[in-house]
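Structure first, sequence second, as always.
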């Protein structure tokens, strides 16, 4: 607003409403705003008057701000700066020193106004050159790659949000025939925050932290020929501005100049290719390319302002200004650099590329809508030779760039396009770009589809909050010991003696361990073939499986066969083993209504674990499964697969044995054991309609929405019932495990936690009873048409006298 008031044409200065608002509210604002913001709003004291405003006297709060404030005065007045002035400010304040999300070396407000103001004033060539070259020597001279040709790709750093971004794949194609390419950018950049080359490379498992020297090595590698450098590694000072750029939203001058960089030089020809959107900046970009001294320069108005030319033309009106596929550039007619040659030795050109003229069918560009994986899938499919819109765009952009830059062998456009097609169809790119065995693209699709609510979105958000210093109570998974549950004494005493059997030979062992624990340890050690350090049978120790079968028989009043019981490392391991055995495809069913009591027809696999129930010994990983009505041949196959793991965890088998055969009444350890058991709670919360509506507006499942709100407000991490496919009507089923004796302590520790009080988290109030119906108003009309006779009452005084006489008699 300051620049508009001082420098913009009359028609675009403050409106009457803005003037009135400032007159009314400025006296109040000036009391609350910090000095740097007051200076930005009123640098010359024109609002308050020079005598009462701090603007004219303001010099900054730190010595590092003095040069910035001086430059900003000129900018706020609508003026421009010299080359040295811009570079002086940038080098003095950058890199930003950020601590606790705040800049510690310079005012963010002043620096933001500096960046925005220059863009509003339309940067001069001198100012753009200063931004472009300010940090060329930050890491020393750039390395020089021994390649005959090198193209620097300057895609907009803020990425694509809608359409397929092809440049990464174009660079790979061009490298096949000796045209080395260097890409640069950032993983994420405002204001668009779209898909970038760094995101795609990182997604595919590539190293996105290359130094310029490492990138030089890839460019010189005949098997690769292209590389990517992150601004984070090549220019830390400019990279430090990302947080500030996110706050200011607008594109600063850097959004133009960062596209024209040379982080690696070449012994042979060099070219720079950059994308643009707004008309007028094509000339500025070409000016910077010439200043860089490259042999050729090309600017392309691709889709979304990126470099990707499309096969379907759009009108100039539809693309705001110059049409999509407009290209402009220059190329040197000799090997001398553009910095050394005169205008006669340099050829300029501009062209609107119509792909239809070169045999391409007009097709819509594939949409990716911010999806990194979709962009990669389209690109890799094209590099595998799959014909379609993505394939056509990669061929068009590779061949056209070769032709316009006058690369060797691309003098004829048809030959250039055919060379790009041949590079793809040869299959060589599959070696360069194909994902490795453990890259995301190569993973089993079923693995990618797995959803596990216990460690899903809520858990990840809770972990982030914990890193930020917020106290989190993790109840998203049954894990009592993590919340302070005391360990069960008896099983630990038994396992301790089994782990260190020499203690049983100590004459003082009875002073430390109760007699029933000693007896039980000897009992289980006698079942092993070498103690707890030896493998057991792949199904588990036979004696323990016998005790499990006896436990099941007592519990279910139905006989159980020890040969059909497998001990496992937790119930989850058993579930996975059975599912891997029976699931052959997406259509296979697992659960069914069992109907009548267990019969010879129903095939049943049941599971148990020491982690749940009343034990809560999650870390011990003891589990089992029992099979009923399973054919012997199938049991043998399951046994075979279990044998691959050799043996379940032997100490966990002891824990399982102790769970199914705990201390009995009369045993020394019985009373303590009964006191130590824990309890699980599965509360059900019904969400009010307003909360459900708010969740839908936020694009969330209602119980997930509630759990996220609960987490943010109280620090309690839960798991929603929908994460387990829970039926509607029971929308939330968080797991809460907390021992009784810790409740008061937990309350104290969470004294900062509060119950959510927002409207969408409230349980709806009871509806008030409706008001009683009003009586019908009496009508003033009388419909009686007969003779009116009126009752004549007796004399009231006479009546009262008679009552008095009766009372006295």
């Amino acid at each position: 607003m300051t620049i508009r008031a001082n420098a913009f044409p009359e028609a675009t200065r403050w409106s009457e409403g803005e003037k009135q608002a400032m007159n009314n509210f400025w006296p109040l604002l000036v009391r609350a705003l910090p000095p740097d913001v007051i200076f930005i709003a009123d640098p010359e004291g024109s609002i308050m008057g020079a005598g009462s405003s701090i603007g004219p006297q303001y010099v900054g709060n730190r010595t590092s701000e003095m040069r910035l404030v001086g430059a900003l005065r000129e900018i706020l007045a609508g003026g421009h700066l010299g080359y040295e002035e811009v570079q002086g400010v940038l080098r003095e304040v950058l890199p930003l020193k950020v601590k606790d999300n705040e800049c510690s070396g310079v005012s963010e407000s002043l620096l933001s106004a500096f960046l925005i103001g220059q863009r509003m004033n339309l940067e001069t060539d001198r100012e753009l050159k200063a931004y472009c070259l300010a940090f060329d020597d930050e890491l020393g001279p750039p390395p020089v790659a021994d390649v005959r040709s090198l193209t620097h790709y300057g895609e907009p750093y803020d990425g694509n949000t809608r359409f397929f971004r092809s440049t990464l794949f174009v660079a790979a194609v061009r490298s096949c025939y000796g045209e080395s390419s260097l890409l640069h950018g950032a993983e994420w950049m405002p204001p668009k925050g779209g898909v970038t080359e760094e995101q795609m490379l990182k997604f595919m498992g590539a190293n996105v932290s290359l130094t310029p020297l490492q990138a030089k090595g890839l460019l010189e590698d005949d098997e690769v020929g292209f590389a990517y450098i992150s601004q984070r590694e090549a220019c830390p000072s400019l990279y430090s501005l990302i947080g500030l750029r996110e706050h200011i939203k607008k594109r600063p001058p850097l959004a133009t100049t960062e596209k024209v960089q040379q982080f690696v030089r070449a012994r042979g020809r060099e070219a720079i290719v950059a994308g643009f959107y707004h008309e007028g900046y094509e000339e500025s970009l070409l000016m910077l390319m010439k200043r860089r001294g490259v042999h050729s320069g090309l600017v392309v108005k691709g889709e979304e302002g990126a470099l990707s030319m499309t096969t379907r033309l759009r009108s100039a009106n539809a693309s705001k200004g110059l049409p999509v596929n407009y290209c402009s550039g220059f190329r040197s007619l000799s090997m001398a650099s553009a910095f050394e040659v005169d205008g006669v030795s340099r050829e300029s050109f501009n062209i609107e590329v119509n792909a239809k003229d070169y045999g391409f069918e007009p097709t819509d560009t594939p949409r990716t809508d911010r999806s990194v994986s979709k962009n990669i899938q389209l690109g890799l499919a094209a590099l595998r030779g799959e014909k379609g819109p993505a394939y056509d765009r990669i061929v068009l952009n590779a061949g056209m760039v070769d032709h316009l830059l006058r690369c060797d062998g691309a003098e004829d456009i048809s030959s250039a396009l055919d060379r790009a097609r041949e590079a793809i169809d040869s299959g060589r790119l599959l070696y360069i770009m194909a994902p490795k065995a453990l890259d995301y693209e190569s993973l089993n699709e079923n693995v990618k589809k797995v959803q596990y609510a216990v460690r899903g979105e809520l858990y990840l958000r809770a972990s982030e909050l914990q890193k930020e210093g917020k106290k989190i109570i993790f109840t998203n998974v049954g894990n009592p010991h993590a919340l302070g549950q005391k360990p069960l004494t008896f099983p630990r005493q038994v396992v301790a003696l089994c782990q260190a059997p020499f203690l049983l030979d100590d004459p003082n062992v009875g002073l430390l361990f109760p007699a029933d624990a000693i007896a039980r340890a000897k009992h289980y050690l006698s079942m092993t073939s070498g103690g707890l350090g030896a493998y057991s049978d792949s199904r588990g120790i036979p004696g323990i499986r016998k005790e499990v079968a006896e436990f099941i028989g007592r519990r279910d009043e139905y006989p159980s066969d020890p040969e059909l019981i497998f001990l496992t490392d937790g119930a989850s391991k058993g579930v996975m083993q059975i599912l891997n055995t029976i699931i052959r495809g997406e259509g296979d069913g697992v659960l069914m209504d069992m109907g009548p009591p267990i019969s010879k027809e129903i095939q049943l696999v049941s599971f148990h674990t020491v982690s749940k129930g009343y034990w809560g010994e999650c870390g011990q990983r003891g589990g089992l499964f029992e099979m009923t009505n399973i054919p012997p041949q199938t049991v043998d196959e399951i046994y075979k697969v279990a044998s691959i793991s050799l043996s379940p965890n032997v100490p966990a088998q002891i824990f399982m044995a102790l769970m199914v055969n705990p201390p009995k009444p009369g045993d020394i350890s019985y009373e303590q054991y009964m006191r130590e058991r824990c309890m699980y709670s599965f509360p059900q919360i019904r969400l009010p309609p307003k909360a459900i509506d708010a969740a839908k507006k936020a694009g969330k499942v209602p119980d997930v929405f509630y759990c996220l709100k609960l987490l943010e407000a109280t620090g309690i991490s839960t798991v929603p019932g929908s994460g387990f496919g829970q039926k509607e009507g029971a929308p939330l089923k968080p797991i809460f495990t907390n021992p009784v004796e810790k409740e008061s302590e937990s309350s104290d520790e969470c004294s900062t936690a509060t119950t959510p009080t927002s409207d969408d988290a409230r349980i709806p109030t009871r509806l008030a009873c409706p008001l009683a119906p009003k009586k019908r108003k009496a009508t003033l009309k009388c419909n009686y048409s007969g003779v009116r006779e009126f009752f004549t009452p007796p004399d009231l005084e006479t009546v009262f006298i008679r009552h008095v006489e009766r009372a006295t008699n």
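Margin note: The chain has four domains: 2-133, 148-442, 453-477+681-761, 489-582+603-676.
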